[in-house]
Amino acid sequence: MTTATETDRIERSILINASRERVWRALSDAEQFGVWFGADMAGQSFKPGQRARGRMTSEGMEHIFLDVVLDRIEPQDLLSFRWHPYPMDQTIDYTQEQPTLVTFTLKDAPGKGILLTVVETGFDSIPQHRRRKAFEMHSGGWEYQLKNVERYVTQ
């Protein structure tokens, strides 16, 4: 796994020994995305411009929703969405904040599978009082989630 960070951007990559089609389905099918991400996305779909929302399923996180608005879908190459990072306090209306942009890209790694990269940008627009915590949590969170998607597609 490779990592790169600055203050406004998190970038993480992982080499996955699976077909492009398999990795793409895990990203682009909302229900499969929910399985490895840890959210109940039953009945949801990913379509550009549409919102997809599901309750988190991890212990202690059930009060939080994965709530995304799909930005771009370029089949088997790129999927992006906007969301409000680290929405832990249910008393805050995060919709008043600028969302970050999450972009997944798939690239062939000759003879080695697929290089999956996730980039999240826009942290500098998050209110100062929660920017650092959101950045820290997502920095580690994307490492964890890339391992989850790898595990999901290779089982």
TrEMBL record:
Q: Taxonomically, which superkingdom? A: Bacteria
Q: Which Pfam families match?
A: AHSA1
Where's the Activator of Hsp90 ATPase homologue 1/2-like C-terminal domain? 17-153
Instruction: Give the family this protein belongs to, as stated in its UniProt record.
Output: Belongs to the AHA1 family.
Write down what this protein is called. Answer: SRPBCC family protein
